[in-house]
Amino acid sequence: MLTTAGTIANTGPPPTCVMKIVTTSGGEISSAEIGESLMLRVEVQPESIYGGFARNCIAKTMDGDGENEYIVTDENGCATDPSIFGEWEVDPENQLLLAHFNAFKFPSSSSIKFQCNVRVCFGKCQPVSDTKCKKICNQFNSCVLSQMTM
């Protein structure tokens, strides 16, 4: 097993991030129905060395006819509207980041993709507290909603 010190000295493996949309049981999906319960899963590997913190997540159309975007998590990693896209949770067994949501789409497209900035940390990342998210999201909720392009 490599130590954090070995990674800092550039003798360990670099971190890799993998993001997938999965079922609530963790299974792979190829398509979904509107309203279906799903999760966005982010893995930072190797999990024995690194942790991750997702923020600035956006749902985007995949069509080339101009993009629609909807901000689902802000710069602090807080859900902008938890009824559409839930708060990030950490799976304690394997350090995966998970956010629950019900499948949705933009009127102009049948496909969406998610884009997130992931901060990589040595060990575990310090989570954002629920009270901080509620305070931040309530403070900026009207600003975020005015930016919606749905």
Describe what is shown at a glance.
The chain has two helices and seven strands; from the N terminus they run αβββββββα. The protein has helices spanning 4-8, 130-146, and strands at residues 16-23, 37-45, 50-61, 69-73, 89-90, 97-102, 112-122.
Describe the protein:
The longest helix is centred in the last third of the chain and has 17 residues, at 130-146. The model is unreliable at 136-150 (pLDDT under 50). The strands form 2 sheets. A 4-stranded antiparallel beta sheet has the order 1-2-6-5, with no helix packed on it. It has a 3-stranded antiparallel beta sheet with strand order 4-3-7, with no helix packed on it. β5 (89-90) and β6 form a beta hairpin. It has a single domain (4-146), classed as Zona pellucida, ZP-C domain (Immunoglobulin-like, Sandwich). The chain is α+β, with helices and mostly antiparallel strands and 150 residues long. The protein has helices spanning 4-8, 130-146, and strands at 16-23, 37-45, 50-61, 69-73, 89-90, 97-102, 112-122.
